[in-house]
Amino acid sequence: MESEKTRISLSSSHGLLHPMHTVLVSCTGKDREPNIITLAWVMPTSINPPLVAISIRPERHSYRLIEETREFVVNIPTTRILKETLFCGRRSGRNYNKFKETGLTPFPAKKVKSPIIKECVAHLECKLHSQFTTGDHTIFIGKIIEAYANKEAFTNKYDLEKAKMIFHLRRNDFATLEPKTFTPKL
After folding, report:
1. Region 5-21 average pLDDT
2. How many Cβ atoms are within 10 Å of 108's Cβ, its own excluded?
3. Mean pLDDT of the 102-120 span
4. Is 171 left (phi over 0), alpha (psi -120 to 50) or beta?
5. Dihedral sign for Cα atoms in the order 104, 106, 110, 112
6. Are the beta carbons of 122 and 76 closer than 8 angstroms?
7. What distance lies between CA 132 and its chain's CA centroid?
């Protein structure tokens, strides 16, 4: 039986693509004060070279920091730091030191000046490859120059029982994946 479709306003249509994998992007400006921004609009765009895209509004504090230093780190949070993840998405780094306010630990990255977030399960260190405006957001394309994850949570795929990653549904609502894997036979 086919169910009836309901019309969705165009300004809300992006919600049809949710839940989206939620990440914490750490960055630093020339003043060296690190910041964290929570993002759900993130995706890989190339394997060779390894590229990742993040989408940020120009009025966000992190936007200026990434433009200044031309680098950032994509950190993968888990449900263990869900409250901190929400805080970093609801407060501006102009007014808050998010590391101090949340208790998250800035830890030196291997190849970029921006810190990693120690409590996250995985990290992608990126140098800015390119950027372009798409309506009210700018897409920053980062070339991944270093990638690493907690051994117990990731080998060549995530162990979903150990890495309870966060997925954004809408506003303050999040979900995680049920620790089941399905591999259909063709």
Report:
1. 91
2. 10
3. 98
4. left
5. positive
6. yes
7. 18
CA 117 to chain centre: 12
Token pair recorded at residue 52:
């990742």
140 neighbors 66 (Cβ within 8 angstroms): yes
The number of residues making up the chain comes to 186
Sign of CA dihedral 150, 155, 44, 169: negative
Q: pLDDT digit string (tens) for 76-98?
A: 999 999 999 999 999 999 999 99
Instruction: Give domain 19-171's CATH architecture.
Output: Roll (2.30)
**48 token code pair:** 């060779």
- State the residue for tokens 């929400």: 86
Per the CB < 8 A criterion, the answer to whether 165 and 177 are in contact is yes
Q: What is the mean pLDDT of residues 135-147?
A: 98
The residue assigned the tokens 């479709």 is 5
Give me the residue label for tokens 């303050």: 172
Is the full-model pTM beyond 0.85? Answer: yes
